Amino acid sequence: NCVFSEIVLENNYTALQNAKYEGWYMAFTREGRPRKGSKTRQHQREVHFMKRLPKGHQTTEPHRRFEFVNYPFNRRSKRTRHSVPR
């Protein structure tokens, strides 16, 4: 059985940290496959989750605009190709 603790990050996303192994997080790839806990870190996008209310439940809080989180590129990160050639 896995036990996770819920962490609310500064960017209002939620991360689920493994209770037994500190520094391991629940994460999924873009294809929906689970990632190994030992390969995950808190700053990775695959670890950030958004909470959703069940159907039929309304929130009393006013809606806020969605904020994009941009991380600076480094030499090891993948970059997206430009759709228009330069």
Could you provide a short overview of the structure?
With 86 residues, this protein is largely without helices or strands. The protein is built from no helices and two strands.
Helix content: under 10%
| Global geometry | globular
The average pLDDT score comes to 77
Lateral strand order in the biggest sheet: 1-2
Rg (CA only): 16 Å
Q: With helices defined by DSSP (H or I, 4 residues minimum), what is the helix count?
A: 0
Number of strands: 2
User: Structural class, please?
Assistant: little secondary structure
Task: Summarize the main sheet.
Answer: 2 strands, antiparallel
**Beta-strand residue fraction:** 5-15%
What assembly state would you assign to the polypeptide chains in this entry?
Answer: single chain
Distance between the first and last residues' Cα: 51 Å
Order of helices and strands: EE
| pLDDT < 50 stretches | none
Keyword list:
two-stranded antiparallel sheet; 86 residues; little secondary structure; globular
Question: How would you sum up this structure, described in words?
Answer:
- The structure is a single chain.
- Helices cover 0% and strands 12% of the residues.
- With 86 residues, it is low in regular secondary structure.
- It has a domain at 4-47.
- The protein has a two-stranded antiparallel sheet with strand order 1-2.
- Strand 1 (4-8) and strand 2 form a beta hairpin.
- The chain starts with a strand and ends in a 68-residue tail after the last strand.
- Residues 33-65 are annotated as: Disordered.
